[in-house]
Design the sequence.
């Protein structure tokens, strides 16, 4: 789901005999590595460097692509994180027929990089792998997601809604703003976790006699292999990880599609919450211009927004964003986050 | 806070030279041990056994009282839990001048005892300490809390609102029902955690530009020693324990007392949520009778209900319960949970 395009490109380039960064095939300016450091895996893509800013072919040729384990040192420890990082870079370079000396720049997008010290530490790991002239950039995953929708340009707003949610944006002067993204305790109700937690709450309320009956009860109980709503308490206490809760979003969507009013309200509220996060960022940055009608991109990323179901949360959010800002252009990225990271590196190197 | 009465009784009995279970001082029928196994400590009280059910002096004489560490094996492990249990029992008996052979019954109230296997395990630990004729009862802490307000009688409803919240009740036939108590993921919004999490959410929303400004921002930031609402995200991620979050309830109350509308709404909503939990239990058990006006006790326990502030959450909950059920008698227990456990044991032994 995260990489609908690059494999195709890769295969095409390999079939053409392309893929090596040589003067013959036009990649004489070297290559760029883009990395996406996700919660469970790390993706690295190798693309040719196009030195003239946002002037490059679409789709961008992918010379190599590799996947390794998680590179978040908070999750897997420093040694494992560094090993995965070196492995995924090395594999992507081998696939592309390039070596370290061809690399012009590297950009890694990773969640939880908010403190300069975190950023510096990971930047230094990557610098250790390459010759000293290679430019290294480590960015918050939201910034990389924005770049994946704007083809590398840091302007506009990105809304990510997967297990968690965050809205992040930049104006033309590089000023940034964010909204949400604080996790469940701080009320990210539009996230996958938030939607599923509301659904579980509705089941318990119906069971207690505190709320109306809902189709969610039988649907969720069946999906979890439980025999009664009472068992939900034990189920949540057994492992309260956010992703495990968020995995129930498809059940909420299917109940809403089947006409369950409680589920429908949960999804409508989530869509409104997400749209308001975008609104807060847009207003703080003035992206909509003085009269509120200026055009700007809103990149929409994550399983909650891009599930493509009949009850389409992403469309509902877009509709609400456009009600606030008629000039907002909602975009679903055509490339995966690792390519966004590569585009961002290209942008940084050209500017 | 949890033991406003028993120390006084204990001192008085000791000063009187009383405290030993002998025929001379009227405790010839032996003694009862009541234990409250809390999250951080365990309290054990030793009281005289009065064999005629609910016929005993008020206040009940406390012959001995001891405090030890946590006896929840899920928190501290089995060995430490058993050691604390033996220690606290032994100290309470020594204080009372009794020994194991004087004990008629033991009742332990403990949170998280919902499965028969858990209950049996702890019952067996206690049985190992005593001769085989001693009756041992292990009960959910909600049941013991109810007994602390009804002087041992299992009839009516108890509402506990501390870090978490739960409503629990029994009808005259021993049929039981509960509402809430599922933890934060399942929407216990009337709990201390729920109140504080709503307050933190309001601070973040105001800071993001998604919600109205509130006095909670400066109050909470100051209380936590932070310099900006941005730092709240790091603060919650650093340790998301429920009790740490719930400790912010006094700040919400003080803001509401100072006229902050957001804080006031959070507390009103919490009070309504708590009252609805009681309503659900009362209706399922039919405690209010067919015409809805029958008299029944509602025991109110926990820091959220009994904080005695100017903005009195407990009073607000009582008012709402009485709006639903004019016959509901709200009671704040005069004895601590360990005494409730002892009264419960007395009830079980007499019936």
Sequence:
């Amino acid at each position: 789901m995260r990489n609908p395009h690059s494999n195709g490109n890769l295969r095409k380039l390999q079939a053409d005999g392309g893929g090596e960064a040589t003067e013959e095939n036009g990649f004489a300016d070297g290559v760029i590595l883009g990395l996406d450091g996700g919660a469970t895996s790390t993706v690295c893509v190798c693309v040719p460097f196009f030195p003239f800013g946002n002037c490059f072919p679409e789709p961008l040729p992918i010379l190599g692509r590799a996947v390794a384990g998680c590179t978040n040192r908070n999750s897997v420890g420093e040694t494992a994180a560094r090993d995965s990082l070196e492995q995924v870079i090395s594999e992507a370079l081998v696939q592309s027929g390039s070596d370290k000396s061809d690399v012009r720049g590297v950009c890694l997008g990773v969640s939880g990089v908010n403190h300069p010290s975190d950023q510096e530490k990971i930047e230094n790991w990557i610098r250790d792998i390459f010759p000293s002239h290679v430019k290294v950039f480590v960015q918050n995953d939201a910034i990389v997601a924005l770049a994946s929708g704007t083809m590398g340009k840091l302007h506009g707003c990105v809304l990510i809604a997967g297990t968690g949610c965050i809205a992040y944006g930049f104006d033309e002067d590089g000023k940034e703003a964010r909204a949400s993204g604080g996790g469940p305790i701080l009320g990210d109700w539009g996230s996958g976790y938030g939607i599923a937690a509301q659904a579980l709450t509705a089941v318990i309320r119906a069971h207690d006699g505190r709320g109306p009956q809902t189709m969610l009860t039988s649907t969720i109980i069946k999906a979890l292999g439980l025999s009664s709503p009472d068992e939900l308490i034990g189920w949540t206490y057994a492992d309260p990880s956010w992703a495990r809760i968020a995995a129930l979003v498809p059940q909420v969507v299917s109940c809403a599609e089947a006409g369950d009013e409680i589920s429908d309200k949960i999804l409508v509220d989530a869509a409104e919450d997400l749209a308001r996060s975008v609104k807060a960022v847009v207003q703080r940055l003035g992206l909509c211009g003085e009269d509120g009608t200026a055009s700007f991109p809103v990149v929409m990323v994550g399983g909650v927004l891009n599930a493509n179901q009949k009850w389409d949360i992403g469309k509902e959010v877009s509709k609400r964003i456009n009600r606030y800002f008629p000039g907002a252009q909602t975009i679903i990225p055509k490339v995966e986050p690792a390519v966004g990271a590569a585009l961002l590196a290209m942008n940084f190197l050209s500017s």
In short: The CA atoms of residues 101 and 132 of chain A lie 10 Å apart. The interface with chain B takes residues 114, 178-183, 185-187, 197-198, 200-201, 204-205, 208-210, 232-234, 236-237, 240, 245, 276-277, 279-280, 283-284 of chain A (CB under 8 Å). The mean pLDDT of chain A is 88.
